[in-house]
Design a protein that fits this description.
Blueprint: H1 12-19, H2 21-59, H3 62-65, E1 67-71, H4 79-85, H5 88-98, E2 114-119, E3 123-124, E4 139-143, E5 152-157, E6 168-173, H6 174-180, E7 187-190, E8 198-208, H7 214-217, E9 226-230, E10 236-245, E11 260-266, H8 278-290, H9 292-301, E12 306-308, H10 311-354, H11 356-364, H12 369-398, H13 407-431, H14 451-474, H15 482-485, H16 487-502, H17 504-514, H18 521-530, H19 537-572, E13 576-579, H20 591-596, E14 601-615, E15 626-633, H21 635-645, E16 672-677, H22 679-685, E17 690-694, E18 697-706, E19 719-722, E20 733-738, H23 746-756, E21 761-764, H24 765-771, H25 776-820, H26 825-858, H27 865-868, H28 874-879, H29 887-914, H30 918-922
Parallel strand pairs: 4-10, 6-8, 15-19, 16-18
Antiparallel strand pairs: 1-11, 1-12, 2-11, 3-4, 5-8, 6-10, 7-8, 9-10, 13-20, 13-21, 14-15, 14-20, 16-19, 17-18
Helix pairs in contact: 1-12, 2-10, 2-12, 2-13, 2-25, 8-9, 8-10, 10-13, 10-19, 10-25, 12-13, 14-16, 16-19, 16-26, 17-18, 18-26, 19-24, 19-25, 19-26, 19-29, 25-26, 25-29, 26-29
Length: 927
Amino acid sequence: MPRKPARAVAPWVRTRLRTAPGTALAYGLLVLVTAFLAAALPRSVDTYETEGLWHAVDSAEPRRTALTLTSSLKSNLSPEQQGRQYAPGRMRAVRDRLTPLLPAPLQVDPANSVYGVHTTKRTPGLDPWLPAPDGEPAEFVLDTPSDLAAHSTLTAGRAARAGKDGAMEAVVTAKTAKALRLKVGSVVHLPGSNAEPQPVTITGIVEPRDSGSGYWAVDPLLHTPLFTARGSVDIKWYWVATLIVAPESAPGLVDTLGEPEQYWRYAPTVGHLTAQDTDRLTAALDSASGGPGLVALRGVLGTNGNVATQLDEVVTEHLGMRGAIAAVVAVAAFGVGAVAAVVLAMTGGLFTARRHAELALLRSRGASLTGIGGRLLGETAAVAVPAAALGLLLALAVTDSAGARLAPACAAAVGVALLATLVLPLRAVFLHRRPQLHGGRDDLVSARPSRRRTVVELTFLVLAVGAVVALRRRGTGDPGDHLVSAAPVLVGLIAALVLVRLYPLPLRWAARPARRLRGAVGFLSLARAGRSSSAGALPLLALLLALTTAAFGGSVLAGVADARDRAAFLATGADARVTDDVGWTPLPAGVADTVAGFPGVREVSPVQIEYGLELPSHTGVTDNGMGAPLIGVEPASYARLAERTGFGPFPAGLLRSTGTGGPAHVGDTSRIVPAIASPRVAERLGTRPIEITAAAGRFHVKVVAVRDVTPALPDKDFLLVNGADLTNRAPTTLLVTGKGDGTLDGRALRAAVRAQDRKGQVELIAEKRARFVDSPMQDGAERLYLAAIAAGAGYAVLAVLISLLQVAPERTTLLARLRTMGLTRGQARRLLVWEALPQAVLAALGGALVGWATILLLSPGVDLARLALGAAPDEAVALGAALRADRWSLGLPAAGVVLLAGAAAVAQAWWASRRGSIKELRAGDAR
């Protein structure tokens, strides 16, 4: 019988792992961190997108998010039949039938949902004691909201109920009672359908418990009366208010001229929704508004049933912001992912280089590629798979938030595990596909790129050019366009390939004059740098991608900060803005001195703003007219403010005083005052002096300069003059510049101003700026970019360390041999530092240059407005948020790479000097 092969006493995988436990542990830690980052990224994005959806719906006005179902009764019904339809019991039963018919995933908040009957036509009050400012009678809306007692507090009288013989009783809010002179016991008469006035008795005064809730806020008239006007020429002002009638009296609304209508108003709840439910939610809203869902609802409401909501617009706005932010975030994700992949490949290259002799020996003795690859696969899988699984579990624990999906995180961790498992066996199989003896030189100087490599490089070049062109043309609006998102990575890749081809040239040029120098350290270090392995392209690629990612991420954050600062200045004009509650009202005397002496204030620019100045036309033609604010300033301080903010800077001498201001020159209308105007105002006034008449004085102005914006009113047309030339000088606004050291206390400044002016208003730039970050998506995306920069920096450090570890044995042997020839420790340190610097300097300079070029190339296609200015006014969003190069993001990481490479070389020389040289000299030629 054939003998069975003896079972291996020492299995391969166990033996190899026990031989190098430190290496296995370090590799496992790298895989764990990479898997954690890869798995945490999609879950973090899901989390802040889900929270962004919740915030978008919760922060929108209730009138926009409410789902309102209405139904008007058929006109052929008798008043008695109509009244029975309005009975509270039937309205409640219809509500119970409608709620289950709302299409999924719509869910409602019962606490803030309401149903009832209201009149759709305002009816005038017939009582002469009601307020009528311009002779116009007050108008009323009758409403019977359900469950009023749970949403209000009775402050006077009693709750309304069904009166005797069908008489209507109502309550009103305290604001309505005060404005309309109503009190408990008042009787309001409204026109009736039978030509007889319909009395409504006020039985109580209520106060809303939460006027901002969906119960009250959908129809603000329910709790706050409206003072409005009708007419365009002969304007008449009048009051409009709501009388909250008892639901039991709803049948009485048929006897009024208000044309009653049934309504069921649902407040949506989104706590059960995730970012992936937006498409279903949009489809459900479309169905309920004009699809199968509406057909089902009309089966209960009747053919006159209707559904109205603006929730679909809120969701669409959220999707627009989410798409814009996701496209920018995708760029960071691609950058960090590429750097991580290159570092894992470098680690595999390090392991392959360390075991080159072992694998070459196995191959020369007949080991098959399958056998070698399978054993190496088992080694790496034993380390990478558990590490990736642990990284996944850690990511799931850290990002255990609502909306975070499991599948993308698992897919990302599996991808990392596959890459970490396959990189070593594939590289080893490729390098040892043929048995190898001791080969010749394999360095950057002697290596010659193959035709296949040239084709691959040209392919990447075409992809990079296509990605850059696509991004510049289409922008980052499509988060699913991965080629556009990978544009910075492709640019960095092409730059790395170009630098690898050019790298030998400067080394050759530098080595020639180094031969003539005294001492061998300089020439030897350059020769060693030139003979470094051609595999050094991977460290260079990793460093370039990391530096490009850091530069791009830093530039994104800098662009976001600049856009918010500019938008905040657009709202305030300075670090703080002090006005009266009415913008054109002059500030009381003493306010300016109080503010100027306040701690943290560097300078105060008093400004007088007169709105609605009628501007004459230099053509003399009568037209529809044009108005613009007149702004009187103190030129010196205001010019410095304009210079600091960047809003229309100008030399103070342009507004040199004519000496004709003050009350003494009221009658001097021929004086000519220099002015700075916005483009439209300058075009209207012309270049010659032209007379204007304002409350601040009557004089001629001559436009001496044109500016697009000015700090006092950055978003409006303006006419800017020297305040000293006005005959009626009365500052209305103070533009405050802080010292910039954070000592300006806004709350204390507001209290100091209101001590002088009870109606004084203080707007702070810091408060305005904080309002622009109103969505969790913005905050989450910024945190993700910071994490991307930190991760890129960490992988760059690993790339430097791995590249040094790869050549550490050879360098240690070299130093041992040179020390036997008289090399001192100082010379050893200099040798290793000068040997490591060429590639580090190349990577640093190349990374900074590529980062700058990438930002320059991609900035036209990257708009950061949505990320920076989520809740900003349209004027601020119109300014955009451009990507700009940030010198700290470009220079600091590059300098760090050089310093790290030098420090690592010094540490390596120190460590080598502490060890004896006998071992290295006995080991022979380490290849």
